[in-house]
Amino acid sequence: MNEKKKEKKLKKKRKKHIMHMLLLFIIISVWTWFPFTDRKVIDIPDKEVMPVKIVLISDLHSCYYGPNQSWLIKMVDKENPDIVLLAGDIFDDRLKDDNAVILCENLAEKYPCYYVTGNHEYWSDREDEMCTKAANAGVTVLRGDCDTITVNGTTLDICGVDDPDEIGLSEWKAQIDSAYDRTDDEHVKILISHRPEKVSIYEQYDFDIICSGHAHAGQIKIPWMDKGVYAPDQGFMAEYIDGEYTLSSGTILEVSRGLARESTPLPRYFNHPEIVSIEIH
């Protein structure tokens, strides 16, 4: 009788433990569903730079952020940026384009916006159509191009390239070359490129800042290690997943965690979706 009681008590204890773990799992899942703003300050040495505020948005995947994307737009408005950079996978290959278009339209009414494609635009086989939608919304689409803009007395060369998934590495590098050739060493040189892992190629240039996304912070971010469990094109224990990295060329590589939520089959853990607010000096 005592043995049966002990076994029953043990089963209850195990069941309670499982329920607690399940509750914790649900709480973390819900908690990491909400976006936040990651604020950074980047100093550009040896150049005359008055403060410029940039908001970096990546990997929206046409996900929903409130009626007419109002939650996301309020986050951007709160930062009052001078420029908004859209670093690929703003559209998705499975979800409808509506949320991406709404965001582009609303932001382009207020701020100069620059957009490059990501791999999911190419996976849709509608990348040209998506670029046209972004352009029609008032966003500048960069596909191996460079646009020069002066903000608060600081001149920036903003370059952008397509994702190499379909065009191939040689064409992708040719796009970087084409954009870079139009830059001026006295200007702040920024490259928008969806993929962060192409470090060996980025180090061949002297861009001041490279803005990217793609990695989703490894989907499950390992606390206190600054690594992700798995990121596309980086594999397990991915390194270039989130935040700021200084390359051997002196370039600052800024990687956004992105904003993908319902488009992604696996939940995010210790990994809030984000926009990145960058103030350069």
Task: Give structural attributes.
281 residues, six-stranded mixed beta sheet
Q: Please, how many domains?
A: 1
Residue stretches low in confidence (pLDDT < 50, at least 5 long) are: none
CATH superfamily: Metallo-dependent phosphatases
CATH class: Alpha Beta
The CATH topology corresponds to Purple Acid Phosphatase, chain A, domain 2
Using the 3D structure, state the CATH architecture.
Answer: 4-Layer Sandwich
Coarse structural class = alpha/beta
Number of helices: 8
Strand order of the largest sheet: 1-15-2-3-4-5
Helical amount: 25-40%
Return the average pLDDT rounded to an integer.
Answer: 89
Rg to the nearest angstrom? 21 Å
Give me the count of strands: 15
Order of helices and strands: HEEHEHEHHEEEHHEHEEEEEEE
Straight-line distance between termini: 76 Å
The shape is globular
Q: What percentage of the residues does DSSP assign to strands (E)?
A: 25-35%
Largest sheet: 6 strands, mixed
Model description:
- The structure is a single chain.
- The protein is α/β, with parallel strands linked by helices.
- It has a single domain (32-280), classed as Purple Acid Phosphatase, chain A, domain 2.
- Helices cover 31% and strands 26% of the residues.
- The chain has helices spanning 2-31, 70-79, 98-108, 119-123, 127-136, 164-167, 169-180, 199-202; strands at residues 36-42, 52-57, 83-87, 113-116, 140-141, 145-151, 154-160, 188-192, 209-212, 221-222, 227-231, 235-238, 243-246, 252-255, 274-280.
- The protein has a 6-stranded mixed β-sheet, with helices on one face. The chain has a 6-stranded mixed β-sheet with strand order 6-7-8-9-14-13. It has a 3-stranded antiparallel β-sheet with strand order 10-11-12, with no helix packed on it.
- A hairpin with a 2-residue loop joins β6 (145-151) and β7.
- The longest helix has 30 residues, at 2-31.
- The chain is globular and about 85 Å long.
- The mean pLDDT is 89.
